[in-house]
Amino acid sequence: MSAQLKYPVPKSDEELLRQCRVDVFRGSGPGGQGVNTADSAVRLVHEPSGITIVARTERSQLMNKRAALKRLRYQLAAANYVAPKRIATRPSKSADRRRLEAKKRTSDKKKSRKWTED
After folding, report:
1. d(CA 118, CA 111)
2. How far apart are CA 42 and CA 23, in angstroms?
3. Rounded-to-integer distance, Cα 103 and Cα 90, Å
4. Which CATH topology does 13-80 take?
């Protein structure tokens, strides 16, 4: 039984980019002229899911685009994840017995610590 993916993720970067709106802009923050004068920051908006990823750590637009695609794949995988159904189980009789015996031993140990007045 294969689970139906909410957002199918294409294998190639080109196909994934076709599903996205790509915006390039000037990144802010540290980096000086390299960041402030070149449109190297990349914003990817995945149209089917609405997930937005921004990459602006590198000075190269191409490297930022690759980083954004990598993060987008990770986010899509997280959005597609479906937790398996929990199968309820009850402890075996021997496990219950061991747990109760351990509680009894702990109780006896704590009772022996109490100071009693004779």
Report:
1. 15
2. 6
3. 19
4. Double Stranded RNA Binding Domain (3.30.160)
- Give φ, ψ of 4 to 5 degrees: -75, 125
CA distance 89 to 83: 18
Q: Which residues pair with 8 in a beta bridge?
A: none
Q: If you average pLDDT over residues 69-84, what whole number do you get?
A: 92
Beta strands in 6-56 (DSSP E): 20-25, 41-46, 52-55
Domain spans, the chain: 13-80
CA dist 23 and 76 (Å) reads 19
Is 80 exceeded by the pLDDT of residue 30?
Answer: no
Residue 34 Cα distances to 24, 60, 62, 68, 99, angstroms: 15, 9, 14, 19, 65
**pLDDT computed for residue 5 by the predictor:** 75
Phi then psi dihedrals of residue 43, to 5 deg: -120, 125
Q: What is the mean pLDDT of residues 95-103?
A: 96
Global model pTM greater than 0.85: no
